[in-house]
Amino acid sequence: MGITSSEKNYDYIQYGLEILLINLSKLTIIYGIAYLTKQLIPTLIVHLSYMLLRRYSFGLHSLSSFVCTITSIALFNIIPYFFKELILPTPLIFLISFFIFFSILLYSPADTENNPLVDGEKRKKLRIKSTICCIILLIMVAFVPATIKTLILLGGFYQALLILPVTYKILKRRYNNYELYE
């Protein structure tokens, strides 16, 4: 007996709800910690900067929800705590900005084993969108106070790292997974 269309739809909806609940629980933990440690604004700035780029550039995912949660606490709660008052010198701001821009320009979108980006046209559109988002992010950096610059660049830096081929290699993950389907 084959699986019917309604069974596939049910499985699809169930999977989507599970992902939603998992992500809401992670966000609750991350922002709960941020609230309790009075780091809500720094966490929000870093996270939004990261997500602006991540939306179209994709990149590595943790292999488990637990590892993702622990990594997210480190990236969005702990590290911003130490960087929130840091004022970067202008040459370093330019250097980090160039690193983020060229990483996004050259390596986005980066797929995963579970989500290969097989459609070449879709990859091209995602690269354009992620580059536009990157430009917007870096323009914002030019107009915000120094401490906020640091937090925005931190979020962008995280995302740039997560799409680099060398990061995939270090973590022993397959890169350009779409090539297996060509």
From TrEMBL:
UniProt KW Cytoplasm keyword: no
Stored InterPro entries: AgrB (IPR006741)
Presence of keyword Transmembrane: yes
Gene Ontology CC annotations of this record: membrane
GO biological process, one term: quorum sensing
UniProt keywords, alphabetically: Cell membrane, Hydrolase, Membrane, Protease, Quorum sensing, Transmembrane, Transmembrane helix
GO molecular function: peptidase activity
Pfam families reported for this sequence: AgrB (PF04647)
Membrane spanning residue stretches: 12-37, 58-80, 86-107, 128-146, 152-171
Protein name according to UniProt: AgrB-like protein
Source organism of this protein record: Carnobacterium divergens DSM 20623
Top-level taxonomy: Bacteria, Bacillati, Bacillota, Bacilli, Lactobacillales
